[in-house]
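#struct-help
A.M.: can someone run this one for me? Single chain, 304 residues.
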Amino acid sequence: MEAGARTRRAPIGVTWLHAARLTVADYVALTKPRVISLLLLTTVATMFVANSSPRFVTILLTMVGGYLAAGGAGAINHYLERDIDARMTRTSRRPLPAGRMEPRAALWFGIVLSVLSLAVFAIGVNVTSALLSLTGLLGYVFVYTLWLKPSTTQNIVIGGAAGAVPPLVGWAAATGSLEPAAFLLFAIVFYWTPPHFWALALLIKDDYARTGIPMLPVVDGEAETRRQILLYGWLLLPITMLPFAVGLFGAVYVVSALALDALFLGLCVRLYRRADRRSALVLFHYSLAYLALLFVAMAVDRLV
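D.P.: on it. Structure tokens below:
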């Protein structure tokens, strides 16, 4: 380097803009957007099941309210589990354990989003959907995160009810009330949650062991976890057939559901027999596609 050469510096405006983008990205990360995308899909698909032609503005406001509710719960979860996240490889780079954000900022962000979600649902959609959304949010934060997760291996089974609320919210948003059929869709998500989550728990068992969280593979072992995954795989088959049995759906749904169930169950059997990491990873990723495609099939069936 020649004498007297100076290091080039980025313009102040560019530096500020870059910092602002990173901050916004961290706040978005607090809402767990990848998780929310699946929740919103089940919500909107259910709206078309309950009412084949829901108003566009109702769909839009339900999506906004749903994102705010789930995002608020996610941000509060980040705050409550920041010390646990710091000890887990998978979560150590999140905004709070990485030190990029003050914990109090994340907590208030979650609270504000939660209040806004309640307002959007109550004013823009209807009170029933607002109360159901609030129930899911409180269930996730207080029942699952604070009570069940640190105390029992069945945390995701019981606490999974909070994650199964979106179909109820979608039904109420489209119709203003709930019908028994809505709870069949709730049951599908409820019974799907344990095998989906336990497949992930097998992949990050060591992380959970370091934190002392009593996840099933840590406490009861991998063999029992694989057995439970297979059991729930079998249970999903009759559960997903119930909506067809009561006349809610027709041929499009039942053919799609049987195909999706067959592959899901096949992957559960493979994981049970092989007990390898790849089988758990494939099942985890397929379980996400499974639920999305199943709810899309519901909406398509009702539309055609």
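A.M.: thanks! Residues 1-7 have pLDDT under 50 and may be disordered.
D.P.: also worth noting: The CA atoms of residues 184 and 242 lie 7 Å apart.
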